[in-house]
Amino acid sequence: MTVHPLPADFGAFPFALPGGHPADSRHAQPVTCHAAGNEIYAQGEKAGCLYQVEFGAVRVYRLLSDGRRQISAFHLAGEVFGFEADGTHHFFAEAIGATGIRTLRLQAAADLSHALLPLALQSLVRAQEHLLVLGRQQAAERVAAFLLDMAERQGVLERFDLPMSRTDIADYLGLTIETVSRVFSKLREKGIIRLHGLRGVEIARWQTLRDMSE
Amino acid sequence: MTVHPLPADFGAFPFALPGGHPADSRHAQPVTCHAAGNEIYAQGEKAGCLYQVEFGAVRVYRLLSDGRRQISAFHLAGEVFGFEADGTHHFFAEAIGATGIRTLRLQAAADLSHALLPLALQSLVRAQEHLLVLGRQQAAERVAAFLLDMAERQGVLERFDLPMSRTDIADYLGLTIETVSRVFSKLREKGIIRLHGLRGVEIARWQTLRDMSE
DNA sequence: CGAGATTTTGAAAAATTTCAACATTCGTGG
DNA sequence: CCACGAATGTTGAAATTTTTCAAAATCTCG
C-alpha cells in the first residue's frame, strides 16, 4: 500500500498553524494518506511544496556515506515542513506510521510568502532547540529533553504514545539504540517515567525530568 | 571600549546576500563596531532587528542552568542573523573579535518580508547542517566537519584564521576543550592539517578531511 | 621580558559504544 | 483464540571514546 487520496475537508493550508487545527476550508489542499515507511520526498528531488501533518508523524533525515542515518526532525500533527533554500530537497522525509499529509504547491501561491515567513521561523526554532539538545554531553539529558518535547508537542498531561521506534529516537539524538533503551530503563527504575508497552509513556515526575534536561 | 559608530558606506542591508558583499548603498543602515566580547543582543530582550556581519565574527549561544554554554551558531562576514519567531531573543549574540555589524530595523521595512524569507531559510539550512554535525558520534568527525565548514565559508584555498578560541569550538561542537585540542593535535600529527600559531589553520589534505566528516 | 590567559598533554575515571544473548511485542495464520 | 515467528527492544560485559583533573607548555600583550 502506498498512497490514498482522502475525502479531505480538513481545512486550508496557509491558515493552519503548527500545533493547532486548520480552521478554514476555502482553499482546501489535497491530502494524502501514507502508510508506515512511505516516502514523502527524497534527497535530491526538486522541492516545490510544503507539507502539513494532518495525523500521524513524519521523520526527516539524511543518510551518511557509512550507512548511518541522522534524523534532523520529527513532525507531528499540525506541523509544517519541507522548507528548502534552493529548490532542492537535501533530506528524505517519510511517514513513521499511518500519516495524513496536506500538500501546498508553492508556485500556485506566490503571494503568500508573508504567511510563509512565520512558518519558516518556526522550523528554525525547532532546529535550534534540537541543536541545543544534541549539544548536551550526557545521554540522559538528551532523552529527558526528547520526552518532554514529545509530551509538550502532543499537549499531553499524562500518558501519551511515542509514534517512533527506539531506533528512530537514537538516530534523532545521536545515540545508539542500546543507550536509549538503557536510559529509558533507568528513568523507569527511578520512577520518573512509566512505560506502557513499547510506545506508551507516562511522565510521573515532570520537574525531575526538566531538571535533568536543564 | 564598547561600541563605535562607523562612517559606513558598506551598502544596503536587504540587498546583501550571505557570503557576498553588499552591492547597493541607497538604503544604507547604521553600522557599529564591536570589541571582542561585546554583546549584540541578550536572551530575553525584545527582538526587532536583523544583523549582518560586515567584518569579524559573532557567536550566538545559550547558557544552561549549570553554567555550560552551547553555541548554536557562528556568523562570519556577509552573513545575516537575529531571526526570531516571536519577537523575543532566545539566545545571546556577541562579537568574537573586533566586529562590524550592520543593523536593519524591521518595523521600518515591513514590505520586505519577501526578501527576508530566503535569508531565514539560509539560517535554517545552517542550523540543519550543524545539527547533522552534532549528531556524529565521533569527536574527530565533528572537528573535521567544522574545519571544512570554516574554510568553505571563508572561501579559502589554503591558509586561514579561526576567529574563535578552542573553548568556543568546544561549546559549538558539544565537546570539551581538551578533546578539541587532542583532535587538532592528532590531525596535525597525521599531516592532514597544519597549524600556524593558535588561530592559523591550513588544510593539507582536503579529501581526507572530507572523508572523515562524511 | 614577564605575567596572565590560553592551549596542550598525561593519566585516571566515567560514559558510551560494540558485540552478543535474551526478552518482549505484534501481526498473522492456523 | 492461541501459537508461532519475525521484528523490536532490553540487558550484560568488554572495548573504546570522551571527560575530568592536574600539570606543563605556549602564546599574547603590555
From TrEMBL, chains A, B:
<dbReference type="InterPro" id="IPR014710">
    <property type="entry name" value="RmlC-like_jellyroll"/>
</dbReference>
<dbReference type="InterPro" id="IPR050397">
    <property type="entry name" value="Env_Response_Regulators"/>
</dbReference>
<dbReference type="GO" id="GO:0003677">
    <property type="term" value="F:DNA binding"/>
</dbReference>
<keyword id="KW-0805">Transcription regulation</keyword>
<dbReference type="InterPro" id="IPR000595">
    <property type="entry name" value="cNMP-bd_dom"/>
</dbReference>
<keyword id="KW-0535">Nitrogen fixation</keyword>
<dbReference type="GO" id="GO:0005829">
    <property type="term" value="C:cytosol"/>
</dbReference>
<protein>
    <submittedName>
        <fullName>Helix-turn-helix domain-containing protein</fullName>
    </submittedName>
</protein>
<keyword id="KW-0238">DNA-binding</keyword>
<keyword id="KW-0804">Transcription</keyword>
<dbReference type="GO" id="GO:0003700">
    <property type="term" value="F:DNA-binding transcription factor activity"/>
</dbReference>
<dbReference type="InterPro" id="IPR036390">
    <property type="entry name" value="WH_DNA-bd_sf"/>
</dbReference>
<dbReference type="InterPro" id="IPR036388">
    <property type="entry name" value="WH-like_DNA-bd_sf"/>
</dbReference>
<dbReference type="Pfam" id="PF00027">
    <property type="entry name" value="cNMP_binding"/>
</dbReference>
<dbReference type="InterPro" id="IPR018335">
    <property type="entry name" value="Tscrpt_reg_HTH_Crp-type_CS"/>
</dbReference>
<feature type="domain" description="HTH crp-type">
    <location>
        <begin position="137"/>
        <end position="213"/>
    </location>
</feature>
<dbReference type="InterPro" id="IPR018490">
    <property type="entry name" value="cNMP-bd_dom_sf"/>
</dbReference>
<dbReference type="Pfam" id="PF13545">
    <property type="entry name" value="HTH_Crp_2"/>
</dbReference>
<feature type="domain" description="Cyclic nucleotide-binding">
    <location>
        <begin position="36"/>
        <end position="82"/>
    </location>
</feature>
<dbReference type="InterPro" id="IPR012318">
    <property type="entry name" value="HTH_CRP"/>
</dbReference>
